[in-house]
Design goal:
Layout lengths: L4 E6 L7 H14 L4 E6 L1 H4 L9 H15 L7 E4 L5 H10 L4 H5 L2 H9 L7 H15 L5 E3 L5 H18 L7 E3 L34 H10 L18 H14 L3 H7 L5 H26 L3 H29 L5
Parallel strand pairs: 1-2, 2-3, 4-5
Helix pairs in contact: 3-12, 4-7, 7-8, 9-12, 10-12
């Protein structure tokens, strides 16, 4: 039987965090064994944001090395670079013509960027970003998209566009489903627990990088905001106790232990006890990833070969599927 297709991607916009791992990459590693997986490095999304002294080429190799270090296996999955497969942007133009200004304007991520940039200097790439993302997904006839909670709305839009297209032209696109973890799909920023942990945050104390040094882990987790309710009880309650629930989520995601069990084990203990143990779990876990990473990151020709192979595999499928789409809309006889 033909395996279902999984597609996901991460922007090479900076150093990846434990949020990227817990919310996305961890699921990818598991899915490799069951599905036909495409894991993309979405560099065209990254250029919507302009950063000074940012070396995109290096960042792509960093991201690839992290994928590999976390256990994404190029023998099982297709790992490739978005900008190298021209069909992504070509399909993106077509889908632009089947989506509405109004629906893009309503995207929460876009609205947040408008506020962040004070309605000035917002480039159109940021506006059209979700359409390029829809193209990434639809181009491969994807069934499942493992992502973090923040991308849910973009997948909803992608599904709407795909359905619209199908209603016009017959069943051309598979309608993809998001895979969002119940716990861990949104690791919160350590200091500002109202927002997610983000690799583009300027406050480094909000983030634990996958390449974070041991000393920093203890320090940052210790500094993490916890909740000042009277009980100071260790309890999972994401609404009223987001800080401590976030720490519990990190602990649970990395050990595979159930949250209820962890809470039971820490019964009567202090926030700091949980924080200390969580730091130890993180250090143990990140050690292996970091070791793998530093073993491969400077082997540039090895990394470039992986990209080369992945691009060939992705291109083959993208080309066939894109031709079918062109035919459907009478761009090609
Ligand atoms: N927008 C996603 C993010 O920032 C990255 C992305 C681009 C993506 N294209 C995708 C994720 C396709 C899943 C599928 O996290």
């Amino acid at each position: 039987m033909k395996k279902n297709i999984v597609f996901s991607g991460i922007q090479p916009s900076g150093k990846l965090t434990i949020g990227n791992y817990i919310g996305a990459i961890k699921q990818w590693v598991k899915m490799q064994n069951k599905y036909n997986c495409f894991f993309c490095i979405v560099d065209l999304h990254t250029i919507t944001l302009k950063k000074k002294n940012f070396d995109l080429n290096n960042a792509i190799l960093d991201t690839l090395s992290i994928y590999l270090a976390c256990g994404i296996n190029p023998k099982k999955s297709v790992i490739f670079i978005q900008s190298h497969i021209s069909e992504h942007t070509q399909l993106s133009w077509i889908l632009n013509c089947y989506s509405y200004y109004g629906e893009l304007k309503r995207m929460t991520q876009f609205k947040n960027k408008l506020i962040k940039y004070n309605f000035k200097n917002i480039n159109s790439g940021i506006f059209f970003y979700p359409i390029l993302m829809a193209s990434d997904i639809l181009l491969y006839q994807t069934s499942y998209v493992p992502i973090g909670e923040d991308q849910k709305q973009h997948i909803e839009l992608c599904r709407n566009i795909a359905n619209r297209f199908n209603n016009n032209y017959g069943n051309i696109f598979n309608i993809p489903k998001p895979c969002i973890l119940k716990y861990g799909s949104k690791i919160l920023s350590l200091q500002e627990t109202k927002k997610k942990m983000s690799k583009s945050d300027n406050n480094y104390n909000n983030i634990i990088y996958l390449l974070e040094k041991k000393e920093n882990i203890f320090k940052k987790i210790k500094l993490a905001k916890t909740d000042s309710d009277k009980t100071r009880k260790i309890k999972y309650d994401i609404i009223n106790k987001p800080g401590i629930s976030n720490i519990l989520n990190i602990f649970a995601s990395l050990t595979g232990e159930k949250i209820t069990n962890i809470v039971k084990n820490f019964n009567g203990k202090m926030y700091n006890d949980l924080k200390y143990e969580t730091s130890k779990v993180l250090i143990y876990f990140l050690e292996k990833i970091q070791e793998n990473y530093y073993n491969i990151r400077n082997k540039e020709s090895f990394l470039k070969d992986i990209i080369y192979d992945g691009n060939i595999k992705a291109k083959k499928i993208a080309k066939i599927n894109f031709l079918k789409i062109k035919k459907k809309i009478n761009l090609l006889k």
